[in-house]
């Protein structure tokens, strides 16, 4: 499944606005750009890759160092960590990892089940997160829920899977999926994901799945659902006292 050009254009517009660059700056039909933009009121350095475009956002005092790096294609967080450490500007900095940015612009088919009940109460999804390992639960934490779906089986009192999305910018729907660890491999996460994706698309949003490097199960699920890799986002945390 290939994303339509219009979908890619909307993705580029959303990220351009997120990083405060011109709306047309990251469009897929534009020659590759390498931009450096200041961040205000934050203690992070971020590197966005979208197609062949790169945008580096950092506090103003770090931008000359980053612009002057011999290799300005920052594809490895270890390289950026080393650069910041050796400069003396950031003696304390750690990587928060690299998120793969994946997208979907078509719903996928799924067979309804008479044995599954669906709740749209966020408290039910919160209950599911409490019953899952902390790493899984933290990976499904969003700033808020615009919509969520939690599945209950007719043989289980507790929730078995869930999915939801958050669309703070009104263009992309950050989508997340969670299944109870003892009930994985039965298609429950896929079922919940189908509900969230279909709802987001019906609202005119583009489902986005951010997958942290090393989350092999999440990556496998996203790939099976048809999410397509478009870019990546690297985040590094500076010492809060700086």
UniProtKB/TrEMBL annotation:
Gene3D superfamilies: 3.40.630.30. Residues 108-242 form the N-acetyltransferase domain. Keywords: Transferase. InterPro entries: Acyl_CoA_acyltransferase (IPR016181), GNAT_dom (IPR000182). SUPFAM superfamilies: Acyl-CoA N-acyltransferases (Nat). Pfam families: Acetyltransf_1. It comes from the Bacteria. GO terms for molecular function: acyltransferase activity, transferring groups other than amino-acyl groups. This is GNAT family N-acetyltransferase. It comes from Paeniglutamicibacter gangotriensis.
């Amino acid at each position: 499944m290939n994303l339509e050009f219009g979908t890619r254009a909307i993705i580029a517009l959303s990220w351009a606005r997120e990083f405060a660059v011109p709306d047309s700056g990251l469009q897929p039909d534009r020659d590759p750009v390498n931009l450096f933009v200041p961040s205000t009121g934050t203690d992070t350095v971020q590197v966005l890759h979208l197609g062949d475009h790169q945008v580096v956002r950092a506090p103003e005092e770090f931008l000359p160092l980053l612009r002057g790096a011999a290799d300005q294609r920052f594809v490895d967080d270890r390289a950026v960590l080393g650069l910041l450490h050796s400069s003396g500007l950031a003696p304390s900095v750690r990587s928060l990892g690299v998120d793969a940015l994946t997208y979907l612009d078509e719903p996928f088919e799924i067979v309804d089940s008479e044995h599954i009940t669906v709740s749209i109460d966020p408290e039910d999804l919160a209950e599911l997160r409490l019953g899952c390992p902390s790493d899984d639960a933290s990976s499904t934490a969003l700033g808020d829920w615009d919509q969520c779906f939690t599945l209950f089986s007719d043989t289980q009192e507790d929730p078995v899977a869930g999915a939801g999305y958050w669309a703070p910018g009104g263009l992309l729907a950050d989508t997340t999926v969670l299944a109870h660890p003892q009930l994985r491999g039965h298609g429950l996460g896929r079922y919940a994901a189908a509900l969230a994706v279909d709802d987001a698309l019906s609202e005119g949003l583009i489902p986005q799945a951010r997958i942290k490097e090393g989350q092999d199960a999440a990556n496998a699920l996203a790939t099976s659902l048809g999410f397509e890799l478009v870019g990546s986002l690297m985040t590094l945390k500076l010492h809060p006292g700086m």
